[in-house]
């Protein structure tokens, strides 16, 4: 049996800042289940999670809102949380199971509404006890299963934050089909981070604000920078920059063009066909995005 998966490891910065992220890497070759299991085990022992959990900020859409959430001016459906099958390892979050169940379903509703779609079919969500007490996530989008590896020493809200990112990878599969497997990394990981919204924003209202602050602090990289070999801090900064770029593209040009761009492929950062969709190359769009960041809004 072979399948494909997105594997993520999320570390917490030692100084207490927001999640540092080792990007979800899409394997472009088929792997056996044993190979994938080995990848997860090796990945999970690579980073030990320390520090205090991040505080979460209120969303601009909250569960129970009477109006349908929107992206731009287009109303989008709310996900059906009953389509989730949730499993938790024995002994994991034993005293918090009811809250974990509620938050897992609420995150699905929020992320699907923000992303602009709903799950095409039922999804299995598994919270797995990690012996090394590391925090990581993996999305088997072909077989509709996402896993979050965690432990009791890691607050459940941080596990939910990882799950929010993984939900978006499944929604990408459901929206774009197999072509999402070869998407430009700026788009695939930027959209997954943007879609996780409040679960990744800390005290910021949006990714415009987050990256504007990050840039003011001297942390900024060209959008087409690849994270390979550059360390966790650079990868973390790129994830947030890419999410901000997604926010800019939706704000300035609309979701329809972003969807068209997403399926033009490229895999590596910056290789989607920006020229064909926007009649502008990535360098030009990047300058527009920087100007947008500098706008106080």
Explain this structure to me?
By secondary structure, the protein is α+β, with helices and mostly antiparallel strands. The protein folds into two domains: 2-177, no CATH class; 191-294, no CATH class. Helices cover 42% and strands 15% of the residues. The protein contains nine helices and ten strands. Strands 3-2-9-10-8-7 form a six-stranded mixed beta sheet, sandwiched between helices. β5 (70-71) and β6 (74-75) form a beta hairpin. α3 (156-176) crosses α4, α4 (185-196) packs across α6 and α5 (207-216) packs across α6 (232-253). The chain is globular. The N and C termini lie far apart (51 Å). The model is unreliable at 11-78 (pLDDT under 50).
Tell me briefly what this model is:
The chain is α+β, with helices and mostly antiparallel strands and 297 residues long. The protein has helices spanning 33-46, 97-115, 156-176, 185-196, 207-216, 232-253, 255-262, 274-278, 282-294; strands at residues 2-3, 6-12, 19-26, 31-32, 70-71, 74-75, 84-88, 123-129, 136-140, 145-150.
